[in-house]
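Changelog-linked ticket: LQZAQKY5 example.
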Amino acid sequence: MPTSDLTSVDDLRERILADIEPLPAYPQALMDAFGLASAEDVHADVSLPSFDNSSHDGYAVRFEDVASATEDAPVHLPVVGEIAAGQAGLLALSPGTAAKIMTGAPMPTGADTVVPYEWTDRGVVRVVVSQAPARKGEHVRPVGDDVRSGDLVVSEGTVLGSRHLGLLAAVGRATVAVRPRPRVVILSTGSELRDPGQPLGHDSIYDGNSYLLAAAARRAGAIAYRVGIVPDEPAKFLEALSDQLVRADVVITSGGVSQGDYDVVKEALRPEGVWFGGVAMQPGKPQGYGRVGEDRIPIFTLPGNPVSSYVSFQVFVLPALRRMMGMRPEVRPVLRARLTGPLTSRPGLRQFLRGELVTASGGSSVSPVGGSGSHLIGDLANANCLIVVPEDTTSVEAGATVDVLLMDEEF
Ligand SMILES: Nc1nc2c(c(=O)[nH]1)N[C@H]1C(S)=C(S)[C@@H](COP(=O)(O)OP(=O)(O)OC[C@H]3O[C@@H](n4cnc5c(N)ncnc54)[C@H](O)[C@@H]3O)O[C@H]1N2
Ligand code: MOO
Ligand SMILES: [Mg+2]
């Protein structure tokens, strides 16, 4: 197939993303929302802090009462009470008095400043203050200093990590609207495939792809159902597929999409209206995408070569899963690194070569790992990045800067 007949990587990705919608949102208890995207803009119902409180253990005072305190001319104040965190304490502090106050405890009205213990004799009945605060309000955390009631605290699409869950709890939210993890069904096609742990004939190979794809889906945040192996028979493939559709938000198949006589996926799904075609990339040239079954479940039919499956997942499936979860489609930063040696690339195809990225203070460098063959899963596992060579580039010199995408576990 001449490269002019191929669909571009970006066109297919955009077509897929235009077809995929976020899954419906539902309210989720905070801890179970970890790692999911917020499906709402959350505004604070309270301010943080919600009352003026002390940042130090010490004495609540009026600034003017202690402003002159020095080591040589300390100020003496009667201690009229004590306020710990969680205790409403004194209602009002009269001029010329002090109240013991603990970190986080509410400031009594009338007091505007806190003198830490270290600047005093820690007196119980009377306190001797031998250092003056620099300003009124020192060691006091005023209402709304951090967050004001009504502020946007988490915006829609934010992937909820520890910081966000901590903040949501801090403003009193017990639940947050999220989108569910997509349920991804994974089918490997190929009569040559065997399950790991089973005996291998001279003409059979182990099914690596369903593990690769299930792990990649799980890493993306999805729930992966690894169905296993389906032989190269259209009727059996369609039967296995229809059995699985009830529990699928997405289906991924591997194998059977190229030009071969037993390319079962293409044969079975083309009549169903699934699109099959060549994409201007290597690995991952033969691709298919469409919808199947009564519920029109999105299906990605990835090529069978293991590296092709991996790259196709990263380029097409991952952005789609992220959109379903209400996340921005791209997750990887595109890094730039200096190439340690020259490389060549096929014209008209975007090539994803395996590389080893080394980051150093003087800048990052990247070296190709292994060859460009789509079957080289050993090298795929050893690499830590993909070097992306654009369609119009056929050679890159040593020392030139290239785009690099980190592998799944590396970011
Ligand atoms: N005449 C042509 N032949 C091929 C072309 C082409 O354009 N013209 N394209 C090649 C490219 S590029 C790719 S990629 C592959 C895609 O093949 P299929 O998607 O049809 O996959 P299969 O034929 O079933 O298998 C290809 C290869 O991968 C191995 N495989 C399959 N499934 C698994 C699995 N689950 N685990 C591990 N390995 C798997 C399979 O044994 C084959 O070696 O087509 C080229 N051919
Ligand atoms: O596109 Mo295939 O994935 O080159 O081997
Ligand atoms: Mg084939």
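Closing comment: Example verified and attached. Residues 256, 258, 260, 263 surround magnesium ion (ligand 3) (CB under 6 Å). Helices lie at 9-19, 63-66, 162-170, 209-220, 234-244, 264-269, 306-324, 377-382.
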